[in-house]
Design brief:
The chain is mainly alpha-helical.
């Protein structure tokens, strides 16, 4: 597979001019960053930030407006004063080695591996079978239909375009799904498909590109292609799991230094990608290059970090990690979508050999996506369980909501500019031809599909709230307005607001509060089962999670105990959400943990088994944590006065939750007393250690408060922090 080696050699060349020349347009040229090109980059970021607010006012998806801005900048660049726009150099390395790993990590890090595995069959069906079908349909239809317009291209070129354009881009669609309220499982399936079909598309693209360069040699070419394709996917998965586990351990070692652990997540995303390329370039076994899919390796490593390694990140840093990667992905996508608009302006539409294939390509891509979805999922549903079944309305959205983006542009840039195809007679080079089709299709999906997804979802009723969501929504409204009413009375009594303003506002919020309470009552009466019990149980689990994280943050429970209880809470939440109002609160289903955690547990059990004292200490920590979080739930639920909850949750649902957690607390405290009685020699030192953790918690909180209120100088803060050993 010579082309794969050639493309991967790019990383190791030290002279920029030696790299394969990117697309020969005014917007894609080799070279280093200049002052004006840097000015352009920061201009793009400024515009993309402002576009968030403009898009909201115009009621347009953010990605759509970014592409429009890019097209406008492309036209503006013809004005001499704005010629610096053309100085920006978008190279294959920038897209492939910087932007792509960033987008992959951000997406995979936030996916639940356990849920991903649960929907693994349908995700893999879409990511592999549907993508291959789509590639074949696009390539075949282009090859056979273009001659009717007097345009002839080789089948290999048509298939090459089909492989790169079949991969969907989840970023814009998932943002819309979140905004418009698509079902969470549908969003997971779509995101999982997008992640894994990126890897499939790249592997298939590289195999086809090799065929384009070296020609088709019958069975030998097919065998080599299938072998390489399999090695890339399987090898990439295994390599990503290993690297992900390694970096998860490193993050655990640096847990007390938040900056170090956060930095390691950035290193993980890009090192996994680069090492995959390095191995593919250098490692040969039995005469066969060990080609690894860098995309699937990064995806696997990111999934490991997001599921197994996330608990090793200090809880104080966890929120920052998510926001950091969200910011990085926002910046990368903003630049890419604006550049799509720039590239669209640069398409040589004057060439008849380009604009007819673009129009035809847009129609063929949409048709092929639909034809790769419906029959495939029809077959899948025949063998699927009722719970795994994919509704027809979801299939419609999976078909229509398939935008194209970063990966397609990146793959085009990996095509050598010098690519020559025997018998090529069009007025543009093969790479410019494929680039034009790619940009045209991206432009069409962004402006046609993205702008219509909201109405499409509404017509399919996929944006409708569930009964629980409706109850939660109205209940939240009632609580908010009730709190506002109390604060207004307090402000009036203290003279903060005038009597006139008070009467005006009190009337508005009284009306809203009454309306929300009536809605809650109507929803509760109009549905089967006791929704209020489910809602309050879900709320109680949220309280447990919050306090469990706090215990873990201050070292009062081990990582194993934290994961064990958190998994149990997640499973209980899902069961309650599906309709069970009273799942057993003590249940702990070890078998439902994700596969990475199970592998790690098996390794620990075999090679690093706990001693009897450690097992007792862990069991004590488990029951102690359960006791604490149950008391926290009782305290918080008990703080709501009857007038706050009576019409929202009902007295019966509140009493049900309180009695459940009282019983739970009694059971765990009984277990604790039993452990303390039977293993006093082990428990007593542990209790002293836990008391020290509690003291450290108070010290850290007081120190933070002193700093926030500027009662100590920064110098004293550092000094006290070191003396107290506060992280």
């Amino acid at each position: 597979m010579g082309i794969i080696t050639t493309l991967q050699t790019v990383l190791f060349r030290s002279i920029v001019d030696a790299l394969p020349a990117p697309v020969p347009t005014r917007y894609l040229t080799n070279g280093m960053f200049t002052l004006t090109s840097l000015l352009f980059v920061f201009t793009l970021l400024t515009l993309s930030s402002l576009a968030v607010f403009w898009a909201r006012k115009l009621r347009l998806p953010h990605s759509v407006l970014l592409v429009a801005i890019g097209a406008g900048l492309g036209l503006l660049s013809y004005v001499p004063s704005f010629s610096f726009i053309t100085d920006f150099h978008l190279t294959p390395e920038l897209l492939f080695y910087v932007f792509l790993p960033t987008l992959i990590f951000e997406s995979a890090y936030n996916i639940s591996l356990r849920k991903l595995i649960a929907d693994g069959p349908v995700i893999l069906t879409l990511a592999i079978a549907s993508l291959i079908i789509s590639t074949g349909l696009i390539g075949g239809l282009l090859f056979y239909l273009l001659p009717y317009f007097g345009i002839h291209i080789p089948l290999t070129i048509a298939l090459l375009f089909g492989s790169l354009i079949s991969a969907t881009d989840p970023v814009a669609v998932l943002a819309l799904f979140k905004e418009y309220g698509a079902p969470r499982r549908l969003s997971l399936v779509f995101e999982g498909e997008s992640l894994f079909n990126d890897a499939t598309a790249v592997a298939l693209f590289l195999v086809l590109l090799e065929v384009v360069l070296k020609g088709y040699n019958g069975v030998a070419t097919v065998q080599e292609g299938v072998l390489t394709f399999g090695i890339m996917l399987v090898g990439g998965t295994l390599f990503g799991l290993v690297v992900g586990m390694l970096f998860a351990k490193l993050v655990g070692m640096t847990r007390e230094n938040e900056a170090a652990s956060i930095t390691l997540t950035i290193v993980l995303a890009h090192v996994t990608f680069l090492l995959s390329e390095f191995i593919s370039h250098h490692v040969v076994i039995g005469g066969q290059h060990m080609y690894l899919s860098s995309i699937i390796a990064t995806t696997s490593a990111s999934l490991v970090m997001g599921n197994y390694g996330r608990a090793k990140i200090h809880p104080h840093a966890e929120e920052f990690v998510e926001k950091l990667w969200g910011q990085l992905a926002f910046m990368a996508n903003s630049i890419i979508f604006i550049l799509v608009g720039l590239l669209f302006v640069a398409i040589p539409l004057g060439e008849r050999s380009v604009y007819l294939p673009i129009a035809l390509g847009v129609l063929i891509v949409a048709f092929s996506r639909a034809l790769s979805i419906y029959p495939t999922l029809a077959v899948f549903n025949i063998f699927a369980t009722k719970r795994s079944h994919i509704p027809t309305s979801w299939q419609h959205l999976l078909s229509w909501g398939s935008l194209r983006g970063a990966l397609a542009v990146t793959l085009v840039l990996l095509i050598p500019e010098s690519l020559e195809v025997p018998g090529w007679s069009l007025g543009v080079s093969p790479r410019d031809f494929i680039l034009s089709l790619t940009i045209g299709c991206i432009f069409a999906t962004i402006f046609i599909k993205a702008t219509t997804i909201k109405s499409f979802m509404k017509s399919l009723k996929l944006d409708a709230m569930t009964n629980i969501e409706r109850l939660e929504y109205q209940g939240a409204q009632a609580l908010i307005h009730n709190e506002v009413l109390e604060k207004l009375r307090e402000y009036r009594d203290r003279g903060y607001v005038s009597e006139t303003a008070f009467q005006s506002l009190i009337e508005i919020h009284n009306a809203e509060h009454t309306r929300a309470l009536r809605s809650v009552e109507a929803i509760a009466k109009g549905t089967e089962g006791d929704l209020t019990k489910r809602v309050i149980r879900m709320y109680a689990i949220g309280i447990e999670r919050a306090h469990l994280k706090e215990l873990y943050a201050y070292g009062e429970i081990s990582e194993r105990v934290f994961k064990r209880i958190m998994t149990k809470l997640e499973l209980q939440y899902e069961v309650i959400e599906r309709g069970n109002t009273d799942p057993h609160i003590l249940v702990h289903t070890r078998g439902d943990r994700d596969i990475v955690e199970r592998i790690a547990t098996s390794i620990r059990t075999i090679f690093f088994p706990l001693s009897p004292r450690e097992e007792i200490a862990e069991l004590y920590g488990y029951y102690r944590a359960q006791s604490i979080i149950s008391r926290k739930v009782l305290k918080e639920l008990g703080s709501y006065r009857p007038e706050h909850t009576e019409s929202i949750f009902t007295t019966e649902s509140m009493e049900h939750a309180l009695s459940l957690y009282k019983r739970f607390r009694e059971q765990t405290e009984s277990k604790l007393a039993e452990l303390e009685r039977d293993h006093a020699a082990v428990i007593e030192p542990l209790r002293r250690t836990l008391a020290s953790c509690g003291v450290a918690k108070v010290e850290e909180q007081v120190l933070a408060e002193l700093q926030e209120k500027e009662l100590i100088t920064p110098k004293l803060h550092v000094t006290l922090k070191d003396e107290l050993g506060v992280s």
